[in-house]
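Please fill in the sequence for the structure shown.

STRUCTURE ENCODING:
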């Protein structure tokens, strides 16, 4: 009888400790991510930069999960540019690096070359990671300018248009 009571007390104490520990652990994540308003501003600034330079492009801004928040396409941009811009932005977020850098590190014969064959990966210039207060908050992709360097320049103009505001939040 004493053994059964002792075992019941130990079991109850153990369950109480487990339940208390589970309640003490955080069950929801809180993290920064871009708003639609920030995404629209960045996309507009990137598109304006490309248009000023004479390029017809598409610009996509994605959240930290790689999902599109804003997409703008010059009416003369090629049909492929919208999806490519989304892929560039999502690739930058997924690999947490700008796609120009990823393009270099994933060339044929390099250890990371296999990532180029993954669905939706665009290992070409024009995708830029957006960070605020040291955290990844989204990405921007530009497609349609003559080369990755020009796409990068437009994307960087988009990030610059919102960087002060998102650092202040």
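FILLED IN BY: designer on duty
SEQUENCE:
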């Amino acid at each position: 009888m004493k053994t059964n009571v002792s075992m019941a007390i130990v079991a109850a104490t153990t369950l109480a400790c487990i339940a208390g520990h589970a309640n003490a652990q955080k069950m929801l994540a809180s993290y920064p991510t871009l708003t639609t308003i920030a995404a629209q501003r960045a996309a507009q600034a990137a598109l304006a930069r490309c248009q000023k330079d004479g390029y017809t492009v598409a610009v996509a801004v994605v959240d930290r999960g790689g999902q599109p928040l804003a997409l703008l396409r010059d009416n003369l941009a090629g049909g492929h540019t919208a999806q490519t811009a989304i892929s560039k932005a999502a690739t930058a977020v997924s690999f947490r690096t700008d796609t120009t850098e990823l393009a270099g590190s994933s060339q044929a014969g390099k250890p990371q070359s296999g990532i180029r064959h993954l669905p939706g990966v665009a290992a070409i210039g024009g995708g830029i990671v957006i960070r605020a207060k040291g955290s990844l908050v989204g990405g921007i992709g530009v497609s349609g300018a003559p080369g990755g360097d020009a796409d990068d320049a437009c994307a960087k103009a988009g990030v610059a248009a919102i960087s002060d505001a998102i650092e202040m939040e």
